[in-house]
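Ticket #388: bound-state structure for pyridoxal-5'-phosphate.
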Amino acid sequence: MSVRPIYLDCHATTPVDRRVMTAMLPYFMEHFGNPSSINHVYGWEGEAAVKQAREIIAAAINATPEEIVFTSGATEANNLAIKGVAEAYFQKGQHIITLATEHNAVLDPCKYLQSLGFEITILPVQGDGIIDLNQLEKAIRDDTVLVSVMAVNNEIGVLQPLAEISAICRARNVFFHTDAAQGIGKIPLDVQEMQIDLISLTAHKVYGPKGIGALYVRRRNPRVQLAPQQHGGGHERGMRSGTLATPQIVGFGKAVEIAIAEQDTENHRLSQLREKLWMQLSQLEGIHLNGHPNLRVSGNLNISVDGVDGAALLLGLQPVIAISSGSACSSTKTSPSHVLMALGQPENLAYASVRFGIGRFNNDEEIDQVAAYFVSTVHSLRKQRSLI
Ligand SMILES: *Cc1c(COP(=O)(O)O)cnc(C)c1O
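RESOLUTION: The complex was predicted; output attached.
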């Protein structure tokens, strides 16, 4: 039997936690009822399970259950937030502000709106990946309806200053949306304290199932109106029609419950593993850390390696380490990612970038193994190169 490579790609997705799986199982065959069926016990069971998960997820961000709209994931939540606000507030204005390092699930809905005649301002980031708040302030106009800035970057792991951004938005009566796909269960998110109006969430980055997420939509002070992007049975208070995916929703709730309960201890453990990895990798010459050194999520390490071809490095690492290239946003392209480009990195093929995403099921020995293999792979690639 072949040994599988060590998985360190937790920003792409995470395995389902066994406790999550156990919670989900009864809702496939036993309690399979449609939560909208109000006339029998099968429906009531489904409804009760969805209600409980909704309460857990709402509590995790200090929202009320009525403010949670279940979606198929963060991509759909981002689309609903951005297009939903744009359409609902069309009369007020048609200008939206976002950030150059956003996930494509934010940038692409914005580009789509641009094709319809909306104006989009894409703010650059500073060299460390953090937003420049002065630039944000200057970019807001009277016709700005939405600012969308992510909580945690999925490539370089940096944290954006959510409370400061929302204060600027509030002062100008502009809604603030944040894509927190990489943030839930990892960093504090409090819609009251941070005054956030819309938050996109997903389960599969926190050891829950794929295909389920949510959008938090503020209901008071002020109430956010959304134009639904999917029409049908009027589920989720009309904002997202479609039969609720009870097993996935139960899993999402359980995953969030576990992640919140273990957030502090797990962040501490992951930071130590990340430091251990960095200590060993930074012994190599020509290694650069991408993104802010401290304002970053605990399990993330994104580095560039001089004098090594990116494709060759990933190929060399493949048998032992499952990580993503930091230099290709889609695996078929070898062009640098829009995130690293936004940091002002040269479009230089003579370096490789990789993203490590350390997670719940990684341990000390794995990190040692990974570090040793990475270092020896870089050495041998550099040696080959010098021989050419
Ligand atoms: C993974 C991710 C998404 C997409 O989430 P899905 O649930 O897979 O649609 C969006 N934004 C960020 C920042 C992500 O990391």
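RESOLUTION NOTES: The longest strand covers residues 300-306.
TICKET STATUS: resolved
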